[in-house]
Amino acid sequence: MTEAHEGQMAENQAGENAVKDFAKTLVQDHTQSYELLTMLAAKTGVSIPKGSMPAKTLRSGYWPSEGAAFDHQFARDEIAAHRLAICDSKREADSRPGCRR
User: Within 13 Å of residue 51, how many CA atoms lie on the same side as its CB?
Assistant: First the structure.
C-alpha cells in the first residue's frame, strides 16, 4: 500500500498530467493487488500488514515538493522500484521447481 499512498501524493503534487495519470494508475493497481492479497490471506489463514509502511520509510521525504522537479524524481524512483520488483519476481520464479527457464 506504500506505492498507493505515494501515488496519491503524486496525483496532488505532480506538475505534468502524464505523471498524474501514472500516479492514478499506481493507486488503482496497487490498491487492487492489496485487496486480492488480503482475500487470499484470509482464505489461507495468513496475516498480512494492514495499510502502508510507516511514513518515515516512504521515499516521499526525499522528493521535491511539486512541479517539474517532483515529476522527475518521482519518475526516477518509480522506474528504479519497479525494476527491482521485476528482478525479485524473476529470482523467486527461478527458485521454484518447474519454473526455471
Answer: 4
